[in-house]
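Q: Hi! First time doing this. I have a protein sequence and I read that you can turn it into a structure. Is that right? Here it is:
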Amino acid sequence: MAENVRGTVLVTLADRDDAEELAEQLLEQGYEPCLVHRDMLAGEDDAEDADWVIEVRTGPHGGPAVFDEPHLAALAEDYGGFAAAE
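A: Yes, that's right. Below is the predicted 3D structure, encoded as structure tokens:
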């Protein structure tokens, strides 16, 4: 049944520095990969409105990051962002 779980969690923050800082923290905690990239929300026309996304696929336990979504969401909230399973 676990093979049917989609594992990626997208942590979305408004600030690039915050995203890079949190990505570094997540790597230290054993999450991987913690890819930071810019993502424009649907309907946004201005590149300045684009958010920064940390893409997390695997948790420190070796399983899909989706199992840690509540933890990742709490960390994102600390930076004024949110997390959602892909």
